[in-house]
Amino acid sequence: MEKPPRLLLSRLWLQNRVYDVTLNSVVFAWKETEPNKKRAPGSNWNTCKAAGSHSVPVCEIIAVQETAEKSQKRKNVGKWHRVPRSPEESYQPPAFTVFYVERTRQHRWRCRSVTFHCPDWGLCQQWIQTIEEQLSLLTYRPKRLLVYINPFGGKQQGKRIYEQKVAPIFSRASISTDVIVTERANHARDHLKTEADLKKYDGVVCVGGDGMFSEIVHGLIWRTQSDSGVDQNCPEETLVPCDIRIGIIPAGSTDCICYATVGANDPVTSALHIIVGDSQPIDVCSVHHNNTFLRYSVSLLGYGFYGDLLTDSEKKRWMGPTRYDFSGVKTFLSHHYYEGTVSFLPATDNVSSPRDKFKCRSGCHVCQHSEHPPPEDKQMCNEKEEEDSVLESGHKDVWRVIRGKFVAINAVSMSCACPRSPKGLSPAAHLSDGTTDLILVHKCSRLDFLRHLLRHTNKNDQFDHSFVEVHRVRQFRFMPKHQEADSELDLRERGGGRGLFGQICRDHPACSCTPTHSTWSCDGEMLPHTAIQVGVHCQLIKLFARGIEDQPVFEDSTGVCSA
């Protein structure tokens, strides 16, 4: 591949050393010419042996500005100085500073700067103007953002995080913002639905946790479908993708979505991804009950264990983020299971599997080759023999039906990785392939379920259990089995007497009975119904992200800065 033509080449000073500085439409680079010999301004420039070099993609330059030496002089006020012997000795050559992205450990980004001194003002201005012209060609970068801050989420640090860590970087990148501090639940969602003039903005940014992000998603999708005349209550309706991108500044308790799409829960890293204009498509699941829309899900739909955990934790919000640990232990010890029927449409045309070792990363070929899912089969599945997997042929697709007793039913549209569970619930789940991973944990012993949970934190295959199965699907339905009375066999299976863990029963502390149905947890919110129908909408929204980078090594090629 041919290299792009060089725009500028000059010899400039950097910390009293001479560098060859070059710029083309892709790369800004500087190379030291004399690594061991200092050069003073005004000395002769000879061709020397090249030393170590540095390069920055133009698409990762944040800003360029003229460097004012007056600020340095103000720092030295009141100190003793040697009187310069000549006017040339006191002369400060003109300089410009380039701010750029630098990658550090654990997928974190930082804003670094480098200052070059020029022999004259004309050359300095030429460099500033040329770099600014190249940045202006990056039309995918946002110029104006609508920012929502949740001051109550997580540790209630959202406003401070934005003002101290994010706002200065946006200002340096010449991004204008309109900031709204939310005052109640669903404030951002309602504002996006009706009041926000989205045509004025290049993106919407939420400062908060996964709950705040969910508000933004619901508001934007609702607004897009409403403007397009799409009936969201119809499960078979094809939704219109949202044009405006969403940025996440993590300030919540878990920040699962930010971690799974960037690789770190770091406000500065997320702000830099927004500035450089990254774009990562994301799948969204729509959840319906009897042709009535309930909610959208981007990360986790959980029934059984995770539904019970959320239900219990909501009663203990006064405990803060630690309520999840407490409720998690309590729900595990209760060890309830629930009977029902799961029917699903497998993604037979997908090129990946939830059991393979290929993880979704930046530039993922699975997501790039994904297409919108095939037409939905409107024919309902016929339920057959208990605990059996049944096949039913539709017009084009084949549905499967599984009936049984489940400790947990999870549908994850991304890995759901977080600092506590670096692998997540489904390590090989993809962000934008038009599928969700349906994980069925059948009735098992408490010890076996603990083994399954522990594998979320280590490198072992968490699906390698006889009581766990996982399917990559495009749609699924769940119907709980409600019984007025348990059979004698079920009572013996569930422990009719008061056992060691009988006192932890959620609904009846004095007995050991098991409730007939659980609650669905949808991205941290409880659903009012248990019988649901779920469909995956491929690449419905876009985030200011690029996916987790495996090897962030920059190569001098024309494709590195593509939007």
TrEMBL record:
PROSITE patterns reported for this sequence: DAGK (PS50146)
SMART domains named among the record's database cross-references: DAGKc
Residue ranges constituting the DAGKc domain according to the UniProt record: 140-291
InterPro entries in alphabetical order: ATP-NAD_kinase_N (IPR017438), CERK_C (IPR045363), CERK_PH (IPR057465), Diacylglycerol_kinase_cat_dom (IPR001206), Lipid_Phosphate_FormReg (IPR050187), NAD/diacylglycerol_kinase_sf (IPR016064)
Highest taxon of source: Eukaryota
Name of the protein in question: DAGKc domain-containing protein
